[in-house]
Each structure stands twice: as C-alpha cells, then as structure tokens.
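Protocol step 4 of 5: obtain the predicted structure for the target chain.
Materials: sequence only (see below). No template structures provided, no constraints applied. The aim of this step is simply to have a reference model before the mutagenesis design in step 5. Sequence pasted as it appears in the construct record:
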Amino acid sequence: MVETMFEMPLEPAGVPRGRAMLERADWAARAFASYDSATVQRIVEAAAAAGAARAHEFAEWAVRETGYGVAEHKLIKNLACSTGIAERYRASDYIDVVIDSDSKIVSVPRPAGVVLALTPSTNPVATVYFKILLALLTRNAVVISPHPYAKQVCAEAARTMAAAAVAAGAPDGCIQVVDEPSIPLINALMTDTRTDVILATGGSPMVRAAYRSGNPAIGVGPGNVPVLVDSSADITAAAQRIVESKAFDNSILCTNESVLIVEESAAAALITALTRAGAHVLTDDERDKVRDLVFPEGHFDPQWVGKDATVIASAAGVRVNPRTKILVAPFDLVVPEEPLAHEKLCPVLGLVRVPTAARGIDAAAAVLRIAGQGHSAAIHSTNPQTIMAFSAAVRVLRVAVNVGNSLGSSGLETNLAPSMTIGTGFFGRSAVGENLEPKHLINWTRVAYNSDASVRMADMSGINPWRVPQGAVPAYPRASNEDQTITAHTPVSVRADGPPDELRDEIRRLIIEELNAIVRG
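Step 4 output (structure tokens):
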C-alpha cells in the first residue's frame, strides 16, 4: 500500500484560482499603498477615460447579456460612474497626511487593502466602474466578482480599466475579475483572510452572507421607495419627474419609486399629468391582470425585472399606447398582503390616495415597514413643514425633494455622493448609512502628541511618507506554466524620484518566504 506524503482535500473548481487572485491582489495592495497622490490621480484618470471610451458599447452589451433595462440609460450611468466619478473626486485627497497643529494630531490615511467587490446584474458595468474607481482613488486592490447573469460584460469592463490603470503605473494585479463566478468560489473569496473588506451590492441573501463571512463587509438592504405628492406640489413637474424616474433603465435602480402616495385634493390633477407624461393608469381589472402577472402567488417574478412597460402590459393582456413608459396600479391599503406595496424592479408603480398629507406620511412609513427601511424616500412638495415632518417620520437615510428618486437618491441629480451602493445604516442593518464613496475605503492612523502645552509638537509640514514609483512597474511573479488569462500586462516606464528597487525587493522577499515554507513543510 502506497501512502501519499500529503493528503489535501480537493477544493471546488475555480477556488484555487480565486485564492491565487487574492494572493496577487494582496501583493498589489501592499505596493499600491505606498504611492503618492499625483501618481494615483494619473492612474484614476486613465482608468476612468478607458471606461468612458467603451461606455456605449458596454451599455448595449449589458442589455443583450442580461435582458434588463435600457441601453441609453445604462450609458448615462456608465459615464457617471467613470469620468463622472473621476471629476467628482478630482479635488479630494485620500492620500496625503493631514496635520492639525491646534489639536497636535497628525492623521495618516491607510488603505483597506484587498477589496472584494460583488456586483449585481441590474447595474453591472456602472457598479464595476464605480467600485474600481473607489478602490483606485484610495490605493486599494480590488477583485470584482460579477453576477453570473452579467459575467461577460463585467469581465471585459474590469479588464479594460485594469489595462489602462497598469499602463498608467498601477501595480499589476490591482484590478482583477472572476471569470466564472460560483457560490463555492464567492464563499471562498469572502471568507479568505486576505480579503480586507467586502463591498456587497446585490440581493439580500448575498449581502447577509457577506456579513457572516467573518471579514469586514459593507452591504446594502433592498429598496421599496415611497413617494409622496401633497397638494402644494407643482403637479405637472412632479408627474414628469416621477414618470421619468420610474422609467429610467426600466426601474432596475434600487432607488426607483415603488409606491406613489397622493393627497386626495391633488389626485385627479396628478393622474391627468401622469398620463400626459407617458404613464398608463390601470383600471381595476387591468391592475389585477398586471398584479397576477408580476406577482404570481403573491411573489415577485424576476423574469419581469427591467422589462419595458409595454412588454409587461402585453403579457398581462392589457392594451396600452406603444409609447407608454410606466404602468400605474391603484390600490387601497398599504399592507404586507398587498403585492403592489412591495418593491418592483420593473416600470409598475403602485398608487394610493390619502385624505391629508399627514395620512400620506403614515402611508409612507407603512410602505417602509414592509420593506426598504434605511434606504430612501421621495417627496414632491413646496411646504417646508410637510417636508420636514415626512423626513423625520420615514425610517430612511436619504429623502429626495422635488426630484426623481432614481437619480436623486443615487446622487446623480442631487448633491449627494454619486453612488451605485446605497448604505441603509442601522435602520436597514447596514454598516454604512451614506451613499458609498471613497472615504469608506480608508482608515486613519492618528499620531497624537501629548496635550500638555509644554510638550512641543514637531514640525511635520512637507514630510510625505509616500513615494513616486520609479522605473518599470513589475508584474506579479507567476510560475511559467501558469494560465495567464486572468490579466497580464507588459511593464511600463514611470517617472519617479524614489528608491528604484523597493518593489523588486518585495517580490524577492515573497518568493523567499514561499521557499522557506516549502522547506519547513
């Protein structure tokens, strides 16, 4: 009987490759953490420009691959999450040391390290762009794990940015993407100790799994956005904004309006204005047909995610104008048993009438008790007391006023941070209550001097602990027989003033450690 020297359990297909990606990302993150701000800015600009150059192509590709949404709307998101993000944070600094002489505290920004970014099928490319740029802005390495329904377009989008970033001087391996996502592979990536933080954007089960992984995670809860229109609102403008928002990318942004609540005295005028703006207000019989189609046995059917309003109407046997943008479905009570009171990632909007604005606020709170706490809500009103009462009553962390909520709460048509990841805070069981932005991917080391006035603080002005990379950017060392298809880049020259051999020394150190581990084994 022949005994093997080592007996190691076989891991599911793809998992060893995933672990190799994390090892490579860990190496890249440690190299990237020493880069100076000018070099990082150059890398960010290059990656953003590369993404923007293919934004239209990827928008059409995402619709083909997933069957969700509208290409022209995805183009808007792709541009907003590439060059838009670079422009938004161009003047922000997540790298340089901050000196507070009065408090005698020096704050040193520290990257998280390796970011595992889980991305959804509904906003695939925009979320890939967004999370990559947030990682680059803060000198983190990122591994993208796309939803299986959008894996091809996401992989190409990630590689496009990776090639541009490395050509601009980023460490090889700072952006990687999983080609064939699977549950065992994602679980392995989430639980690996080399993963420093997980950014989870997607369904609730995946987000909960990220929080259970044992690694730090930033996840978001589902939306179920109530929108209140009171009697003081500009009815025509409100109707136009709501229709355009609900129709945007066929409602696949989690910030899309789910239940429209209107004060009775404004209801007739609003319904007329909605119709003129492109909505079809369903009769009771038509509503029942659409509800039975979209919510068979009371549960949302995902086959209608991101489908056109006319497609849904036709499937339900409802005749509508071929230019119809959304379907408005009136119902009476906001109760959990009413399917139309739940989130709808398709252009079907519930409608409830209330006698007063105060009752409308109660109805909005009820919508959020069903689902969507912590997420977002919207109001169309010119009454500041009503706006404040609404904002204080609904258990959400962003309220969009007189703007479509799809682009309002996501920060594209308001001054909130533009984001594809909407933190739901304590209300929604999330670690973050803001729109995700670069500041959430760094920690700060505080260098705190003795507060006694007699103890002098040293002058640290002009001291920079980071360096400008010099010479060729080295590729991550890999075995000669390893499959090179993850990503491979030719080293490029980068102007620098710092020591030229630091990264090569780091590579050499890693190889020696691996050899020593083999010998000890």
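Step 4 remarks: The domain at 225-405 is CATH 3.40.309.10 (Aldehyde Dehydrogenase; Chain A, domain 2). The two ends are 23 Å apart (CA to CA).
Proceed to step 5.
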